[in-house]
Give the backbone structure.
Amino acid sequence: MAAAAPAFNPPPLEGWARVLGTFALSAATFMNVLDSSIANVSLPAISGDLGVSASQGTWVITSFGVANAISVPLTGWLTQRFGQVRLFMLSVMLFIITSAMCGLAPNMPTLIAFRVLQGFVAGPMIPLSQTLLLSTYPRAKAGTAMAMWSMTTLIAPVMGPLLGGWITDNISWPWIFYINVPGGLLAAGITWAIYRKRESPTQKVPIDAMGLALLVIWVGALQIMLDKGKELDWFNSGMIVALAVIAVVGFCFFLVWELTDKHPVVDLSLFKNRNFWVGSFSMAIGYGLFFGNVVILPLWLQQWMGYTATYAGMVLAPVGLFAVLCTPLVGLSLGRIDPRRYASLSFLIFALVLWMRSRFSTQADFSTIMIPTLIQGLAMSCFFIPLVTITLSGVSPDRIPAASGLSNFLRMVAGAMGTSITTTLWDNRASLHHAQLTEYINNGSVALTGPMRSFSAAGFSAEQVLGQLNRMVDQQAYMLAAGDVFYISALLFILLIPLIWLTTRTTPSSIGDAAAGAH
């Protein structure tokens, strides 16, 4: 790892400076987290406007997530090189510029390229906003500061689908990116006014350029392979085979290099700690399952259930209600209640929610679809804080920043890959169900003759009748496929429960260290 930065403990802020500083840092965090979910309900509009399929449109989400994940491990080195305030300001300003570029993108390749840039420059924003916020409050109020920071990260995913849906239906999808400009300028202006004289000391430290290059190569190759696989017929394509080879070979070289380099960009020795590797992998897998299902739900509602982007966002919005109410209670009780119990409860509730969704039919009304989303908020409140606590509890205080960066890298990569895998599985299962359903349709079947008479009586031509019937079969096929994805995800959440009990129980002191160092 890089050499430790000189000690830096600025005095806490007071009065309006503390209030405005908290607001500015929270606004920047909100803007960043918002961009990970605001495009979910806008994908059909973006895909249609730019002339690509909905599955290709998911690149808008995955490209941001992967680039964001890759840049997170660089935060420590960049902070020591440039200072935390200057780096935070640079990250916010570049995020504003790249957001505007995303809105101006004339086609899908350009939009994806700008989303990659946006995700990469946004990497330092969240960990640095937390670092600056902790320096704003006295140490005795660190828990209050983290609770307020957590609320921002919980509210943003709720507002994302609602805001994205309303903007898409009432203005146009580019404005889901343009709205970052005024908010970002306001946050940047207040932050600079308050924190510019509280800059951390800098020093020249080495950068693991080879490790970073290998990280970009294998993660990028793997993500492109997952995103392009269905379109290119997987391993029947030479390009997919080549990407798979690059990902595997790149990963092997990355492991060897990081384990032998004196200043690794990713400290793989952290995986010697059982709590760390079990906690970080459980959080990554759980987040990948959660995020993948959050993406396909609005796609299903808009493409096959007739929902507008606004109504699809309203279905997703209640997830934050229980999360906002219960997260502070979970945080306050961690010293008394084993975090493994909370994590197990979270996995169990996620499984219940997904099982409920697997029972949906095309007749499901708005309230039926919304109820599992409401319950899901309770699972979220028991997910992040307990799992972060478990992951960081066995790590020494001086290594917590590196451990937090690595666990967040795994989580964000898993979210992007979960999106690709889930949408691919959904399409594949829909094709299978479509083939199975058409086996029951023939000239003598009631399933065919009844609708044909109805459509013919309504004045449809023979070709239009067949088109309407195919649309009905597709609707059923994609509903059944979504049910399959939800059911498989529920089973995987159940399997995570015994895994989390491989960890050792945390102590109150380790919980405090974990909360103070979590990103």
About this structure: The chain has three domains: 1-203, 208-262, 271-519. The CA atoms of residues 70 and 409 lie 7 Å apart. The first helix runs from residue 15 to 34.
